[in-house]
Amino acid sequence: MNDIIKKIKSLDLSNYGNDFLLTWDKSPEELEATLLIAELLRERHRLGKPNLVFDSGLAVSIFRDNSTRTRFSFASAANALGLAVSDMDEEKSQVSHGETVRETANMISFMTRVIGIRDDMYLGEGHSYMKEVSEAVQTGFKEGVLHNRPGLINLQCDIDHPTQSMSDLAMLKNYFGSIENLRGKKIAMSWAYSPSYGKPLSVPQGIIGLLTRYGMDVTLAHPEGYSLIPEVAQLADKQAQVSDGSFNIVNDMDEAFKDADIVYPKSWAPFHVMEARTSLLKSSDKAGLQSLEQECLANNAKFTDWECTEEKMKLTRNGEALYMHCLPADITDVSCQQGEVSASVFEKYRRDTYLEASYKPFIIAAMMFLTGVKDPMVALNKLDK
Amino acid sequence: MNDIIKKIKSLDLSNYGNDFLLTWDKSPEELEATLLIAELLRERHRLGKPNLVFDSGLAVSIFRDNSTRTRFSFASAANALGLAVSDMDEEKSQVSHGETVRETANMISFMTRVIGIRDDMYLGEGHSYMKEVSEAVQTGFKEGVLHNRPGLINLQCDIDHPTQSMSDLAMLKNYFGSIENLRGKKIAMSWAYSPSYGKPLSVPQGIIGLLTRYGMDVTLAHPEGYSLIPEVAQLADKQAQVSDGSFNIVNDMDEAFKDADIVYPKSWAPFHVMEARTSLLKSSDKAGLQSLEQECLANNAKFTDWECTEEKMKLTRNGEALYMHCLPADITDVSCQQGEVSASVFEKYRRDTYLEASYKPFIIAAMMFLTGVKDPMVALNKLDK
Amino acid sequence: MNDIIKKIKSLDLSNYGNDFLLTWDKSPEELEATLLIAELLRERHRLGKPNLVFDSGLAVSIFRDNSTRTRFSFASAANALGLAVSDMDEEKSQVSHGETVRETANMISFMTRVIGIRDDMYLGEGHSYMKEVSEAVQTGFKEGVLHNRPGLINLQCDIDHPTQSMSDLAMLKNYFGSIENLRGKKIAMSWAYSPSYGKPLSVPQGIIGLLTRYGMDVTLAHPEGYSLIPEVAQLADKQAQVSDGSFNIVNDMDEAFKDADIVYPKSWAPFHVMEARTSLLKSSDKAGLQSLEQECLANNAKFTDWECTEEKMKLTRNGEALYMHCLPADITDVSCQQGEVSASVFEKYRRDTYLEASYKPFIIAAMMFLTGVKDPMVALNKLDK
Fold first, then answer.
1. Which residues of chain B have pLDDT under 50?
2. Is the pLDDT of residue A377 over 90?
3. Is pLDDT above 60 for A61?
4. Contacts of B195 by beta carbon, 8 Å cutoff, 6+ apart
5. CB–CB of B76 and A112 under 8 A?
6. N or C: which end of chain A has fewer CB within 10 A?
7. How far apart are CA B274 and CA B199, in angstroms?
8. What pTM was estimated for this model as a whole?
9. In this predicted model, what pLDDT tens digit does every residue of A227-279 receive, in sequence order?
């Protein structure tokens, strides 16, 4: 643990931003600090040492979509640091009364240290909503309405899923020994078949938007037509150049898996489908949604062979690539008839996927720590006493 | 802060009642203690000092109507003092099993320090329900079933909304420098047009039932037919006489605004409509409710000019009266086509309304403190160590 | 309190199991430890002394059926020991995504010390589900996915209701002075009429499955056809033999009440009806459920004289048996027209039933304590400082 504390001390955190919305808006130091503090909190938790850095305060969560792991990770992180979770249930609130985002954001923040938001349903909305909340509490703080400026944590939006991608990075760091060891490693972020449609783009976007910063060989694979938001792909490309890694898009799962050190096979909806779906959802066009779903499922059905099988795993480096998933996976013959991954591959890597998920509460706690604690070093020293 | 503590010390709190249900049932000392402790807790919070007076215990909330600000204020207050919120969701409980109020009240109270209730839907019911809960826990405590007697806090009933009116009083004290400075100040508690109908009477009743105790010139304004519960108006009248203030009812918004130091324009349903609505709600008469709503909205529509506009604000003292609202306001062109207040007036006073709301968590915390702490001075001294 | 601590010290708790699922799977020492620690925590609470043994951590609750008392008892117990409750709302989770129990159990457990589950709707399911969760977290802990192995607490399943039966035992111990004094006492666990049907079997099963271990004369009474799960009745019989008590089944309420020291009149559905109901619920056969209900209610109606009246109470020892109920009771003329108990009998024993319920938060806290604390004696000594 002393090593970790030394490394944290060496970082300049004076410019740490208040929010954690998109990994690509955070500096390398901020990302490293997040990883290191997550590691420290995790190690302390393993040893049964308390991580209470706040004496009181709320951690408000706003879930506009279902969640198990992120909900419990958020609750665990808040509790570990000494905050109480208060869930904002928009149905039980007066939001329907026509209250503005600016007002609600301030009304829930008088004693709040952190606000976590999941809003991944509508393309073009989740991130915008978070920005609006962020500006509202910033103004409230400047105007003296709020004693503290709560930090925002993106618990999944339409663009990025930073608590997931940072947990994945923490897993990879641990698995391969260091962040430096990731350089040159090939990861296949691949589309995979699922019996459902309309899964968010934020996981693959989060992965290519983060891992291209570490000199990795990032290969995005999907059937034609299943492309991501163009801006994120462009960003990944640019980052790969800067980090001396590479970023490729292929339309062939086998090609992506070839010699990969890591595979991440996961279903998502095509970008243009999410756009269409968003406007149908907005206009509450149920018939339109059903017909879009039928069309998409029919199209999906052409790609049932995009499944992570033992055969496909043999294509990877020494047939031993690390299999990753944000969970829950659509497992063939377990959770569905035909899915993203075969039961035998999933079972082989089941413990690894659980471990991957186990980083999330600590990553979120680190984000809360960095946004909520005025002087991280003072807080860390206090913890040790 | 030392000044505040000195003032608190000078108060005789030996007769502090267990519950905070109606401001007019509380003595001047009790109200002053509530304000002072709220101020102290607020100042300590601003300085980052903890307000933990309980080591553990539950703060149970029962919301029989939607809420954002009061819900979060209650959660914030509980957390700040060291209590955990446990929300009683009557749909998930066995209340529907025919359990009596007496029984439920005891069953949720074994380790509970405070119970907050919002029950403002049915005229003649909210306050009665709170009294029944209060008597039940009192008996439970006397009989040795409960180790502690949880205090009740009215989070809005059919008659009063004391956490709101006390927050408003705290705002006014701060805005005008002292409670003494409120003497002779004119407040216009005015009905205002809203596109909805059936808003509770508890805010205007709470305002006239509290501010008439401080020598203010309280003017209640509403269109003919929109009167409040007669008993509360009579009480306001009596209190104004005792405090050497005044209480007037007018049917003209302009008259009320004339030379006012404070304006509080807000929609509410007429008393007799609430009575009719209550019996229709009880008999689940949907058709009756719809026809009542239609009738009321049609009647409301005659009074769209009861809007707090810049022109109306010019009538107030130097055109600079303080605009107050419990929020969310129906803002013309923002949250509705035509509402209680124009966008420009609201925007001018937006920060003030947010500040007004910011007192609520501390007011509720003060109420919790006074009902839950055996010796307030001992608890305050402990906080300082 | 020193006496209690001495007794706890004398117990060998080295084999304390992780979970509390069925009382008959727990050793006499484990049951005694649970009672003693509950008493200690209760006495400390009465004296206003804190019971915080955890610095942080989650207590996850999963309620698959309505609950008031158990929900608040669980929340109170968790809070008293320093844990935060996180309720797993399966509708808001991704359980519907086809996630396996094994996966969900681990995903909610990264910082969780205890998991409480109520699952009493389907015969043959609740206990099995709890076992599956238990095995999942055990494996997760062994595999290094979880830093701690959360303990499971059965908050009512299809077979047993140990938090209820242990609270009842604590009540009886207190009422009669000691566990030893229960030897030879007669308890009438009797079916009683209720206007509803389909109440779980877990309370009567829990009572006969626990009290037959203490040398009591346990008489189970019900109309013909209202038998419990055969295995539990057999177990009760065997235990009664071992403990030198007795276990009898009669079809006559009067016979059961005759000379009873304690009566526990309560409605339940016949075992075979619960089986039929379970398969209808599983196949979502609404018509089938309605016709089953009609049939059962018609059958129930033959036994409206199975009511605990003053007359029946006269049959008991000196007419002064202790009346017990898990609450809420169906009280004639109070919560229904005709129910399990007359208003006068219930009112006479109302305080006793509330006291009976008051043990539950402490019993649950004791279960949490014993599963979550590594060295109970160290923890108890720390509490005292």
1. none
2. no
3. yes
4. B297, B330, B336, B337, B338, B339
5. yes
6. C
7. 9
8. 0.96
9. 999 999 999 999 999 999 999 999 999 999 999 999 999 999 998 888 888 88
Assess contact for B59 and B74: CB atoms under 8 A.
Answer: yes
Mutate to test the interface with C, among B53, B60, B100, B107 (most CBs of C within 10 A): B107
User: 3-class SS at C55?
Assistant: coil
- Residue intervals of chain C classified under CATH 3.40.50.1370 are 2-160+360-377, 164-358
Return the bridge partners of B119, or none: B157
* Residue listed under structure tokens 């969760």: C133
Q: ipTM strictly over 0.90? A: yes
Helix (H) or strand (E) holding C60: strand C58-63
Q: Measured between alpha carbons, how far is B159 from B203 in angstroms, rounded to an integer?
A: 9
Q: Do C98 and A63 touch (CB under 8 A)?
A: no
**With contacts defined as CB-CB under 8 Å, which chain C residues touch A360?**
110
Mutate to test the interface with A, among C104, C106, C110 (most CBs of A within 10 A): C110
How far does C139 lie from chain B, in Å, by closest CA? 32
A58 contacts on B by Cβ (under 8 Å)? 72, 75-76, 79
Q: How confident is the model at residue A52 (pLDDT cuts 50, 70, 90)?
A: very high
What's the gap in Å between the CA of C47 and the closest CA on chain B? Answer: 8
In 3D space, the residue among B207, B188, B167 whose CA is nearest the CA of residue B313 turns out to be B188
For residue C97, the model assigns a pLDDT of 54
Asked whether A217 and A246 are in contact (CB, 8 A), the reply is yes
Q: Please give the Cα distance from C19 to B26 (Å, whole number).
A: 50
Best residue in B66, B83, B334, B383 for a mutation probing chain A (most A CBs within 10 Å): B66
Q: Which residue has the higher pLDDT, C214 or A121?
A: C214
Task: Count CA atoms within 13 Å of residue A237 on its CB side.
Answer: 9
Segments of chain C scoring below 70 in pLDDT = 92-98
Fold (CATH) for A164-341? Rossmann fold (3.40.50)
Q: CA-CA distance, B354 to B328, in Å (whole number)?
A: 10
pLDDT of residue B92: 63
CATH topology classification for C164-358: Rossmann fold (3.40.50)
Per-residue pLDDT tens over the stretch B310-331: 999 999 999 999 999 999 999 9
Percent of all residues in chain C with a pLDDT value above 90, rounded to a whole number: 80
Does the CB of A95 have a partner CB in chain C at under 8 Å?
Answer: no
* Other beta carbons less than 10 A from residue B314's beta carbon: 12
* Residue spans in chain A of domains classed CATH 3.40.50.1370: 2-158+360-384, 164-341
Q: A199 at the C interface (CB within 8 A)?
A: no
Pick the residue of C42, C61, C66, C333 with the most B CBs within 10 A to test the interface with B by mutation: C66
Q: Residue A184 pLDDT > 90, yes or no?
A: yes
pLDDT one-digit tens code per residue, C104-136: 999 999 999 999 999 988 888 899 999 999 999
pLDDT value at A197 more than 90? no
B138 touches chain C (CB under 8 A): no
Which pLDDT score is estimated for A375?
86
Structure confidence at residue A93 (pLDDT): 57
Spatial separation of the C-alpha atoms in residues A88 and B69, rounded to whole Å: 11
CATH T-level topology, domain B2-160+360-377:
Rossmann fold (3.40.50)
Nearest to B107 among C45, C72, C82 (CB): C72
For residue A317, which amino acid is it?
A: R
Third-level CATH fold of A2-158+360-384: Rossmann fold (3.40.50)
Q: Which pLDDT does position A376 carry in this prediction?
A: 85
Task: Say yes or no: A52 contacts chain C, CB-CB below 8 A.
Answer: yes
Residues of chain C neighbouring B58 (CB-CB closer than 8 A): 72, 75-76, 79
Cβ distance B316 to B263 under 8 Å?
yes
- A354 interaction partners in chain C (CB closer than 8 Å): 103, 106-107, 140, 143, 145
Average pLDDT, chain A: 94
